[in-house]
TrEMBL record:
Family: Belongs to the HMG-CoA lyase family.
One Pfam family from the record: HMGL-like
Location of the Pyruvate carboxyltransferase domain: 1-270
SUPFAM superfamilies recorded: Aldolase (SSF51569)
UniProt cross-references to CDD domains, sorted A to Z: DRE_TIM_HMGL
Annotated keywords: Lyase, Metal-binding
Gene Ontology MF terms in the entry: hydroxymethylglutaryl-CoA lyase activity; metal ion binding
GO BP field: ketone body biosynthetic process; L-leucine catabolic process
Keyword Lyase on entry: yes
PANTHER family: HYDROXYMETHYLGLUTARYL-COA LYASE (PTHR42738)
Source species of the chain: Hymenobacter cyanobacteriorum
Cited Gene3D superfamilies: Aldolase class I
Protein name as catalogued: Hydroxymethylglutaryl-CoA lyase
Amino acid sequence: MKLIECPRDAMQGLTEFIPTATKTAYLNALLAVGFDTLDFGSFVSPKAIPQLRDTAEVLAGLDLSQTRTKLLAIVANRRGAESAVQHPEISYLGFPLSVSETFQRRNTNQSTAEALADVAAMHELCEASGKTLVAYLSMGFGNPYGDAWSPAIVTDFTDQLARLGVRIVALSDTIGASTAATISPLFSALIPAFPAIEFGAHLHTTPTTWREKVNAAYEAGCRRFDGAIGGIGGCPMAADELTGNMATENLLAYLAEQGVETGLDMAAFGRAQAMAAAVFPSH
């Protein structure tokens, strides 16, 4: 089981700037918990994501000496990837490849064909620098634009990623559109069809629908889950203001019910939860 904590996703849409020292302290608290991976920041244009303009400064302040947790940074293009690979502390680069052409243009200002070309270049860059590319299939469960979506389309995107050598693919529910009825068939079909790929679930949800979504992915064989303490964050374009990230505490409760041992330091998790309340006071 791999749990990926996503403070970057929780922070990126907030308009009030979180001081660098506050971000750094919170991330250091999360590093003490023992998650597999921390999605900690992004190397993107400060104009696009002003909240994360201090990612390099935050990285310099992280204490990685006593943690097993690996770092993941989001990038939106080759230039961002070239910046990220200069930092030896980072293990993973994450890139949002959209199943929706409209969202790809809105999110990274390129077509999906151009984005796939970037994926190929970024994968090579990662391979050359000892890092791993994580491809997020944004709008993986549908989109609000009327763009075509079907399990066959998601499978085709996955096949193209597999041909490029990408080894981690996270199906991403960008707007909270997924249901058990869409989650289960996708993972059930993709996991056996692409044995070389590690599939993850980056699910956005409302407070009342999280359990059915986690259960559908888990029962279908997914063993990599993204979450954020408090369920904070999510896509600014989500129509429902209650739609946010999968709350990590809910994920942990579900896994405990299944008898899954996560190996996390729960005392450290409690301290991080308390700190989150101060970092995100309005949430």
